[in-house]
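User: Teach me something about this protein's shape.
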Amino acid sequence: MPGHRNVSYLVIGALIAGVVGHATTALAQTVSREQDIVDLRLGQRVLVDDGSCPTGQIKEVQGSQMTTSGVLRTRKCIPRLGTKKR
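Assistant: First, the predicted structure itself:
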């Protein structure tokens, strides 16, 4: 049954990718000011809690593209993950 083996590998690979992706987001670095991000690498994501996003969201700064002058930063507000506070 070689066909079932391929499906099993596909499912296991998808599960591993999901766990690794979730762990990476959970371990994202958080700073209070964007100026505190000194050396942003390509693909790196840093959460900035400076109050510039609406309630329930936090700013995410990502090293998105390599340019001649260094790594280009993109900024967006994303939902704040974690326990809800009353």
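Now, about its shape. The first helix runs from residue 2 to 26. Confidence is low (pLDDT under 50) at residues 20-24. If you'd like, I can walk through any region in more detail.
User: That's plenty for now, thanks!
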